[in-house]
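Human: Note token order:
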Amino acid sequence: MNLVGLLNQISTLLNTIIPILILGAVVWFIFGIIKYVIANTGEEKTKGVHVIVSGIIGLTVIVSMWALVGFLKNTFGVTGNNTITPGNIPCIPRTGNIGC
């Protein structure tokens, strides 16, 4: 497998994983809400709040990174078709034309 094929596979894998991570963070957040609502003691409510906060932080990090990557793709003119052709990879000088 060449570099282009590897990069395309990584891109496809990440495009599959990101929505799953977002779904997981939302489920974790909802689990924290349920845990908080059914808690009987202050200690259990505190644990529920910690789960809620960790779900919000996780969701924020995932969505922020997704937005940052989208911003960088738009800034540098990367197309959205997730395919990389060998002509798009610049040559690295003095390396035997790697990337050409």
Notes: The CA atoms of residues 41 and 47 lie 10 Å apart.
